[in-house]
Amino acid sequence: MPRNDAKKKPMADNDDIPFNRDFPLKPGVVDEVRPGVRRVLCNNPSPFTFTGTVSYIVGQGKVAIIDPGPDDEAHAKALLDAVRGETVTHILVTHTHRDHSPNTARIKAATGAPVYAEGPHRASRPRFESEKHNPESGADRDFRPDIAVKDGDVIEGQGWALEAVATPGHTANHLAFAWPERKINFVGDHVMGWSTSIVAPPDGSMIDYMASLARLEAREEDLYFSGHGPEIPEGPRYVRFLTRHRQAREASILHRLAKGEADIPTMVRAIYIGIDPRLTNAAGYSVLAHLEDLVARGIVATDGDPVIGGTYRMANA
Q1: CB-side exposure of 166: number of CA atoms within 13 Å?
Q2: How far apart are CA 216 and CA 236, in angstroms?
Q3: Which H/E stretch holds residue 248?
Q4: How many CB atoms lie within 10 A of CB 154?
C-alpha cells in the first residue's frame, strides 16, 4: 500500500499543528507499514475515531497484537486472518476505551495469548458528588488484564521487546509501548496525527496529559504509530506542537475569563469557532480539563468543585 507522504504538511516551528488526515487504509486490509509492523483498520469511523481504530501486529512468526479494537467480530476475524500460520504470544492494550479493548476477549479466546495492560478502567480522580456520569467516556469497565504492566516494564517476544511507557491523561490507565531498538512508539490515543486527543474529566486529566506529553518528548523514539490515523514521523517534534496548542487553548480560556465570569458553554462558543456540532460536548469537557488544572494552580476560581455545569472567573477578579 502506498505511504502517506504526498499530502503531509511540512512541520515549521511557528506553524499550527501539522495534522495529516491522508489515511487511505481500508478496513480489514493488512498493511505492513514497516518490517515487523503490520496494521489493520477496524470499520468503526466516527467524529471521535476518524476512519476507525487501528490494531497493530508486531513481529513475525510469534507476534503481539496491540489494541484488538471494539466489540467487532469482523475486525477480530481480519486480525486472526492476518496472523494465520503464526502464533500470537502477547495481546497488549494501551487503554480501556470501548474502541480499543473489548475485542481483546475474542482474540484471547482464539489464541490463548495472555493480555498485558496497566489495569482495569478507572477515573483520573474521584467523581464529585455534583457530577453526573460522563457518557462520552466510553469506558470498557469489563476489561481485566492477565498481567498488570507498570511504567518501565519490558515485554519481550520473538525478535522484539516493547517497553511500557505510562502516559496517563486521555485515560488514567493509558500506556504507550515503545520499541527502543527500532525508535518506534505505539502511542495509542495519547498522540494522534489527524486530531488532538480528547481529555475529558473525570475519565481524563489535563495535568496528567501534559506531563505525559513531556515524558514522550524526552524519549528517543521518533516514529509514532497511533490508535487512529496515519503514522507520525518526528514524534517528539510533533509533541511540541501539541504542547503549544494546549498552552494556547489555556491562554484562550484565560483571555475569555479576563472579560468576566463565564460558564463552559460560553467559553466553547468563544474558543471553538466552527466546531462540528457533534463535538461540542467533547469540547466542553476539554475546557473543563483545562479549568481543573487552572483551579488547582490558583489561577481560576469557581464556587464549589470544578464541574461541567460550573461558572468560572479569574481568581484575582
Answers
A1: 13
A2: 7
A3: helix 235-258
A4: 11
CA neighbor of 312 nearest in space, from 250, 200, 297, 295: 295
Q: How far apart are CA 212 and CA 183, in angstroms?
A: 18
Query: What are the phi and psi torsion angles at 290 (to 5°)?
Result: -65, -40
pTM of the model: 0.92
Residue 213 pLDDT exceeds 50: yes
For CA atoms 255, 258, 259, 260, the dihedral sign is positive
Q: How far apart are CA 113 and CA 88, in angstroms?
A: 6
Measured CA to CA, the distance from residue 266 to residue 250 in angstroms comes to: 15
Does position 137 have pLDDT exceeding 70, yes or no?
no
- Look at the block and give the residue holding cell 467487532: 72
Cα–Cα distance measured from residue 217 to residue 226, given in angstroms and rounded to the nearest whole number: 15
Burial state string for 256-265 with b = 16 or more CB within 10 A and e = fewer than 16: bbeeeebebe
- Selection from 154, 172, 183 nearest residue 209 by Cα: 172
Which strands form 311-314's sheet, in the order they lie side by side? 262-263, 311-314, 300-302
pLDDT at 8: 40
